[in-house]
# Entry
Amino acid sequence: MTAIMSPANSESTPAQTQDDRDLLFYEGRLNRPTKAKTPELERSGRLRHVIFSGQFSVDLLEELAGVADAIRKLSKHRSGQDFLINLLHHKRAMLYFTQPSTRTFLSFMAACQILGITCNEVRDPQTSSETKGETRFDSIRMFSSYFDLIIMRSPIARLAESCAYLMNDLERSGNRSVPIVNAGSGADQHPTQALLDIYTLQRTFNFSGPNDSEHNSRFDDLRRLPGCENLSKGLAGKTYAFCGDIGRGRTVRSLALLLSNYPDVRLVFIAPNHPTLVMRDDLRQALAAKNVRFYEFDSFEQQLDGRPVIEALDALYMTRIQREHDTGDDAERYAALDFSRYCLDMDLVSRMKPYAPILHPFPRDQHFGEIPQEIDNDPRAMYFRQARNGMWIRSALLAHLFDVDGQILRYFHREFSA
Amino acid sequence: MTAIMSPANSESTPAQTQDDRDLLFYEGRLNRPTKAKTPELERSGRLRHVIFSGQFSVDLLEELAGVADAIRKLSKHRSGQDFLINLLHHKRAMLYFTQPSTRTFLSFMAACQILGITCNEVRDPQTSSETKGETRFDSIRMFSSYFDLIIMRSPIARLAESCAYLMNDLERSGNRSVPIVNAGSGADQHPTQALLDIYTLQRTFNFSGPNDSEHNSRFDDLRRLPGCENLSKGLAGKTYAFCGDIGRGRTVRSLALLLSNYPDVRLVFIAPNHPTLVMRDDLRQALAAKNVRFYEFDSFEQQLDGRPVIEALDALYMTRIQREHDTGDDAERYAALDFSRYCLDMDLVSRMKPYAPILHPFPRDQHFGEIPQEIDNDPRAMYFRQARNGMWIRSALLAHLFDVDGQILRYFHREFSA
Amino acid sequence: MTAIMSPANSESTPAQTQDDRDLLFYEGRLNRPTKAKTPELERSGRLRHVIFSGQFSVDLLEELAGVADAIRKLSKHRSGQDFLINLLHHKRAMLYFTQPSTRTFLSFMAACQILGITCNEVRDPQTSSETKGETRFDSIRMFSSYFDLIIMRSPIARLAESCAYLMNDLERSGNRSVPIVNAGSGADQHPTQALLDIYTLQRTFNFSGPNDSEHNSRFDDLRRLPGCENLSKGLAGKTYAFCGDIGRGRTVRSLALLLSNYPDVRLVFIAPNHPTLVMRDDLRQALAAKNVRFYEFDSFEQQLDGRPVIEALDALYMTRIQREHDTGDDAERYAALDFSRYCLDMDLVSRMKPYAPILHPFPRDQHFGEIPQEIDNDPRAMYFRQARNGMWIRSALLAHLFDVDGQILRYFHREFSA
# Structure
């Protein structure tokens, strides 16, 4: 591909491997601001590759949620299931997961299977081909010659993005090219996690109930509760609190940025006072640049709107402390901290607003105990439904990528809305 | 789930992990007699979870055999295959095999695929989620949110049973819940192995032949042979011999208990005289409680009905010595034993009744040699067909769990019986 | 099976395992000349098992190419995809890859999936069953009882061939038997790689272009170029050069033998002057026996037809040096060699005939650099298309094995040729 005919290359020192040169070649494109990148990740207004959460506009998020809802409802009926399973049964996906993640992996598998997509996987960090001296890009190009979609998760920051550029270069030179979906790359991005978090909030803040009717609805009931008089539907105008490992929380970062696109939201970050765990400057700056109101607290008891934040928030996003990424001093400094203050208990939950959902990207840590099991049965505990939502919204995203989302909506409205 | 609000929990010592507490919580239910447990493993007279061989009544075994026969015959015709492959193509199964077993694993995969069920697997003893502090129950609940069925094999005794209770608790509290199938847990149970052993005996003791007609049948021919005058069809009234590792044979145990439900059977256990290998007291007591006639021998030459048992038995179930579970002294004590007496040879086989099937749960051990290959071509060698039977009967079991067995029988009788 | 009742066996020493005896039993059949073996790998003129490249006659290669072309074109249309995906959706394949090869593995997976075949895999060199003392043949027979096809790759020379004989013996004794496809066994054979190399040459030497019309075609244009006046379509009468690790190149060996079946071809082998890397005697003799003209060179500059061979060849097959198979002295002797002479560069490529394709079995070695990436965009670079061709031709081979190739051709001509 054209990549290698670039100056970046001819300058390359002998010490470099081709893998190094491949990434180096894309350096320039990788370093552009997200805004400048998004156009080449799209084709005629649709996503072609899914790399950043920044690609999801509020409108697109609404659109995908609608498709996900349709897929969910179709899946309740045999005729709907048959329709879905035949939609993309001729497509083959490669799940290239060199960074392990059972949950994300299985969620994508299920999302593919709902639409009939056949899944293939490579999870061994170094495939046998790579041991034979094959470059990463040759491996990716091999996958693209056998499969119709590459869903990849890698410990290498920005590899997924580079692969999207590789695919674009191939497309431009008239070669075979397939969509790339980033299922988590390095520490930087995990866009489909943010997607399912938003989808869960969209469903929660729709406030619909099983017994809703013309005359009565869960939403009306909620508004009759003290302090809920001004409750409104949707994500706008609400206060979102994040608790735990804010500094290393890839999902916190992505979700906060997506929420900042909704009007009039407030973000609260509750973390132990520890350099590794508190908010990073780049996120501070990104939020400031968007004029989002945000607060950095170190306790559920700090005041917001004249009351403890645990009572003031509209949604609580819990996270686990990512011990596996600790450095030596981290562990040391931890000794001084009282982590129990960043774990929920029934008493704290009972003080939350009656409708305020508790989310968690999962897995939760049984040893740290940020969410004890006794909370699982509280109606506000949304984290298990959140996992299932991930499957539906990823299916919707795949339908969007293969341009069958419109077909799904038409079928749904024709067969099931009447 | 409600689990954790139990006293068992509040009493728990800090040393305990949540995993410990989860199992402890079910202690009470786990310790009930099987009879008391079966009801909550059923829904309106059908199996919901498959945990014990004790769940299979003689009637249910007949029913499942009928479904398995129909599936087998449908699979011989393209139209039948198309019918089957579309029956459950919208269902997704998780095969959670943290205890390796290629044979059982592949048999379940094939059984799912015959009905169009898409298979997913987790085989790594510790999934990446567990390394992040996730509890086993959170992992199971994750699987249940993405998939429609969990087939699990685990080294942890009674884990499958506990998961079935977890699913029941979730169902009761209005959450998503899926069937659990035990594909072998700890040393205690391997119900689907017993199922395929019985199915193989059902087919063998049907005595049908390829050339059966109104006027003549293999069964009539057999009854004309000396000593076979009183031969009857079916499993009742027959003598079943088990040879080899009786003490540790999970499959021996399960099969013996199922056979004891048939009228007038006799069971013979042939094992080296070694505490590890002979029958365990709990099985002795279980059989005694059911008034089954059983015998403990240490040789094929011991007398039954006035002749060597090898000549008296109606079916012979061979097993391998499970060396991988040996302790230090086991190996030592073995020195004194002549294991060759627990290996078949052509001479022994030639003395068996002409219709008596030889079964083996497989794999057989080429080093121990309990069944030398020269026996493979003897018409009594049933162990390879036994493996294929396992695929058919597991398909029938899955059809039963998803309530499409009736549909299969109706289609079969409409299209193929005429 | 009958295997074990053979004298070969009774003579066997106690030191032998059953695995040893199993292979020993087939010794006689394994040592026959290929010609004598092929009949029992066929059924009524169709391939039953795919073991050697020697099974592919020129006619069969033409036939398979036609089926592969039809599958490729059908896959461009939704109706064609639906036709293909339903063709064999009731079939289950076992990919038994105890010698790793991501590329071959994925290519077969995709080839199966195009026709709707469900794939299952065992890749762990020792399955849990084998650790329990199961013989290789018992494992293979287990696979054959659950699945309809076994695609196997093994480090053990001639294991695939032995398994084909096992299946034939089972068939003869009225037992279940399935086709065996050799996806690479030991150092000897990799027939489907040779198949895709030939298919790529068939497509290249068809010289068709996107803008071909009645009045003008790429072929005519090429013939107008100086030195191309006598260019003819097809593989006959052309000069094929192989460069790199000729001695250990399993694919070089298979392809050379297939090419030698075409009239009037010349083969050139370009390798460093090193006993491990140059042509082996057995290949020399095989080619001599077929009266093929072949040349052994150590440089692209050696003369053929009065000019450097790089300018004289019609197709160039590059390979990587298989360092993973080096012995101690190999590495030592290498020091004396200038490997750069066996790597392509833009200058060499520019001297090749304008239509001469560059092939490579892949993966290429980024450290050795036999094909630098800057060549990827040259129209002669065929190695990425070659990979995708492997998927199509393997699909065609599977269609042939399951006897649906005729159905594909009929459907294609009815629906798409008009």
In short: Chain B is about 40% helix and 10% strand. The radius of gyration of chain B is 22 Å.
